[in-house]
Amino acid sequence: SLCEEWGFYFVTGVRPSLISIKKQLLSLKIEEQPVIYEQQRTKLRGKTSTVFLYKNDKTERKVLLYVNEEIARKRQDEFKELLNEIQEKVSEINQKKVKIEDKKDLVENFLRRRRVISLFKCEPDNGTIKCVPIQKKVDEKFNLAGKFAIVTNDFSLDAVSIIRIYKTSGVVEHSFHILKSVLSLYPIRHLSLIHI
Predict the structure, then answer these.
(1) What 8-state DSSP symbol labels residue 156?
(2) CA–CA distance, 16 with 145 (Å, rounded to integer)
(3) Measured distance CA(86)–CA(78) in Å, rounded
(4) What is the pLDDT of residues 41-82, one digit of tens each?
């Protein structure tokens, strides 16, 4: 890869839904992990591990799996409220005097807008729509709340260093935003060493 060829290291966040990451995040128990970073109200617990990001990936990378306790609690509470809201909305839609197909469309559109359609199975049932949660997916979504992953190709970094480097990326991104928008310096080409 270019990083190895040029001797560069990277630290970047990855989607928790990535299969290789999701497996490790789902098994991450908050109470069992040491505190790796603490600042004011923010407390991060986690561990480092290694991972192949994709199927047939030949490069192993170091990954920091961590949970932000405050965000986890907040998102889990919001998710519980959303589940209650869905049941209320389905009940409200079932009270309407429309065809069963229209009721199903209304429920599915509501679930789509809330970005949870893949968590439910909607079926007609005696003139109403039954919206049944797919428990495995609901549990996964609840369990992943507040959990994050940061990947690096630098195996010498510890958990605290990975977090600090990742947090400074916001400064770099803001600087690029200023260069690209305020100063109109775009596009910045960085595909070859001479353009950097």
Answers:
(1) T
(2) 10
(3) 12
(4) 788 889 988 888 888 888 888 999 999 888 999 999 999 999
Task: For the chain, state the CA radius of gyration.
Answer: 22
Rounded CA-CA distance 96/103 in Å is: 8
Residues 6+ positions from 119 with CB-CB distance below 8 Å: 111, 133, 134, 137, 138, 141
- Asked if 185 and 179 count as a contact pair (C-beta separation under 8 A), the reply is yes
Strand, coil or helix: 162: helix
Return the closest-CA partner of residue 69 out of 152, 141, 162, 148: 148
Residue 108 DSSP class: H
Given a contact cutoff of 8 angstroms between Cβ atoms, the answer to whether 13 and 167 are in contact is no
Backbone φ/ψ region at 36: left (φ over 0), alpha (ψ -120 to 50), beta: alpha
* pLDDT tens per residue across span 130-183: 999 999 999 999 999 999 999 998 899 998 888 888 888 777 777 777 767 766
- Total-model pTM: 0.74
In 10 A of CB 40, how many CB atoms? 5
Q: In degrees rounded to 5, what are phi and psi of residue 136?
A: -60, -45
* Amino acid at position 107, single letter: V
Q: In DSSP terms, which residues pair with 122 in a beta bridge?
A: 131
| Cβ atoms of residues 164 and 39 within 8 Å | no
